[in-house]
C-alpha cells in the first residue's frame, strides 16, 4: 500500500504559516481506498506496535463498515489505550471568561447576531470568585474560554491568566491554565505565553472550506486560512504546546478525521512534534443556532471516530468534554481518551453562583450532557479503577512541546506520570473527598503502587505520599 504519511515530504510542501489543507487530496484518499479484512487487521496491528498511521491507512479504518471489523477497531483502540496510556485520566475544568463575540458562527449561542444571549465579561473580582469556587472542589487545571471580541485581546487574556494564578485557597491553587480563544498574531501569543499558559487550543471547526464558509458568515473567523495557520503563529511565538480540534456535525465526519490527521502531519513536518491534544466536540443545542442536520454524527459513529483517532495517532492526547452524556463518556473513555473535564459549568459566573444543575442556554454557549460534580466523577473513576490525575508537572518542569517523551523515553510514564497521578490523587483524597471515597481511593493507590514496585525509586514515592498525608502539598517528580 502506498504510504501517505511522510513528514519529510510534507516539510518540503508545507512551509510554516502556509495553508496546507487540500480538500481534493482528502477526498481522493477517501474515495480511492479499498477495504479488506486483512488490511484492517494489519493496520490495527501496526498501530498496536505504537506506529502512527498514514492518511491512507486511516481511511481504510474509516471505510470499514462490516460490524465485525468495527468491533475489532474498537477493541484495538481499547488495547492501545491500556498499553500506551494505562488507566490515568487527567482532569480539568473549563472557565468561561467572556461571551461577547463579533463573529457569527451559526452553531454557537455566543454569535453576534444572537440578541437573546446575556453578554457577560467576568471582572477581575468575579474571576477570583470563580477560581476560588473551583479550587474549593479540588480543581488544579483550567482551560479559560473566550468569545472573539476586540476587548478580549492578548493583554486581556494574559491578565485573566495572571488573575487565575494569583488565587490561593485554603487547600490549593490552580497550577495550569490552558486557553481556548481566537487565533492571535505572533506578538499576541508572546504576551499570553509570558503569563504562563499551558496549551493554546484552537479548533478549526471544519477542514472543508466550503462548509466553513457556510457556517462562519461574518467576523474575523470567516477567514479559514487565518484560523488554519493560527497555531503556526503560536509556534513562531515559541508556544510549542498546542491543541487542535474539529467540531463534528458540520461536515462529513470521515473527512474531518483525515483533516485532523493532515493537521497533525503538518505540525510533525514543520516543527518535529505534533499537537499535544486533539478535541472532537460534537455540535450541541445552542440558543438560536442553525445547523444542517445532514452531517449529524450518531453516537455509534462518534464512538467509531474516537477509536480510529486513537489508533491513527497513538501518542497524541485525546480530550473528551462534558458536551457528551455520562454513559457515552464512560464508553468513549475506554477507547483512548486521556483528558476529560469534570464538574463542568459553562454558565458565565456559574461556579460561584452554584447554578450547577440548571442549564440556561441564554447564559451559555451550548448545552452540556454531563452535569455531574467533580466529586461524582472522581468517585466513579475510582470505582472503575481509573487513576484520576491532576498532574501539572511536565509543564512546570519545562518538559513541554515534547509530550511524546512520555511514550518514547523508556519508563517515563512510571517514573513521572503514574507517580504524579498518585500524589495528586492523594492530595485530592486528603482535602476534598468523603471518608468513603478516601478509603476507596487509597485502596486504588495501593494497587497502583504494587504495579510500580519495580521502579527504581519507589521509596521516593512512598516518602512523598507520607508527606502528603502529613499535610505537605504540591509534591511532584
Ligand atoms: N470563540 C473562540 C473560537 O471560536 O475559537 C473560542 C472558543 S469557542 C468559545 C469554543 C469552541 O466551542 C469552538 O471552537 C467550537 O468548536 C465549540 N462550539 C461552539 N458552539 C458549539 C455548539 N453548539 N456545540 C458544541 N460545541 C460548540
Ligand atoms: Fe464567537 Fe467562538 Fe462562538 Fe464563533 S464559536 S460565535 S467565535 S464564541
TrEMBL record:
Signal peptide: none annotated. Pfam families: BATS, Radical_SAM. Its cofactor is [4Fe-4S] cluster. It comes from the Bacteria. Residues 85-315 form the Radical SAM core domain. CDD domains: Radical_SAM. InterPro entries: Aldolase_TIM, BATS_dom, FeFe-hyd_mat_HydG, rSAM, rSAM_sf, ThiH/NoCL/HydG-like. Keywords: 4Fe-4S, Iron, Iron-sulfur, Metal-binding, S-adenosyl-L-methionine. One of its GO terms (biological process) is water-soluble vitamin biosynthetic process. One of its GO terms (molecular function) is 4 iron, 4 sulfur cluster binding. PROSITE patterns: RADICAL_SAM (PS51918). This is [FeFe] hydrogenase H-cluster radical SAM maturase HydG. It comes from Ancylomarina longa. The lineage of its organism: Bacteria, Pseudomonadati, Bacteroidota, Bacteroidia, Marinilabiliales. The gene is hydG.
